[in-house]
Design brief:
2 domains, two-stranded antiparallel sheet, mainly alpha, single chain, 150 residues
């Protein structure tokens, strides 16, 4: 089972059941295997790999309205232990957040699109990026204007 990443692996039948039920159903009965950390594949992110848009959005979701990088080390360690952002260290999370804590999620997204930040670890570009950028320029045009003037 070393061809999987660490974590729970579910039978594809779960997807079919969800589609046929037209809703998300409990997946616990479809658990196929739990791949242990020691046997799973690694992403092998270099320490210098920039955070992706999706990783940034995950952090915004986790932190919610707490926009402060001064959270305790235990707080950041829990994120790492729970594998919310695989192979990211406590220090890299704190460093990333220190540079983004004063920005709204929308500002982060606009800046990421403008700077052509990778969408996620699997895809470099955002699907339908032009459409999304057009919408964001309509609602958050001031962010793009500020970036273009810099």
């Amino acid at each position: 089972m070393s061809s999987f990443y660490p974590g729970e692996i579910y039978d594809e039948a779960w997807l079919y059941k969800c589609v046929s039920a037209n809703s998300i159903i409990k997946k616990s009965e479809f658990l196929y295997y739990k791949c242990p950390e020691s046997q799973g594949q690694r992403l092998n992110l270099s320490k210098r790999k920039k955070f992706t848009i999706m990783e940034g959005l995950i952090l915004y979701k986790i932190l919610g309205k707490r926009k402060v990088a001064t959270e305790s080390n235990a707080f950041w360690s829990r994120i790492v232990e729970n594998n919310k952002l695989p192979e990211r260290s406590t220090e890299s999370l704190k460093k990333f957040w220190q540079t983004h804590e004063n920005k709204t999620q929308e500002e982060f997204l606009c800046e990421s699109i403008y700077n052509k930040v990778d969408f996620c670890l699997s895809f470099k570009e955002i699907p339908h990026c032009e459409e999304l950028e057009s919408k964001l320029r309509g609602t958050d045009g001031h962010v793009f204007e500020r970036l273009e003037m810099a």
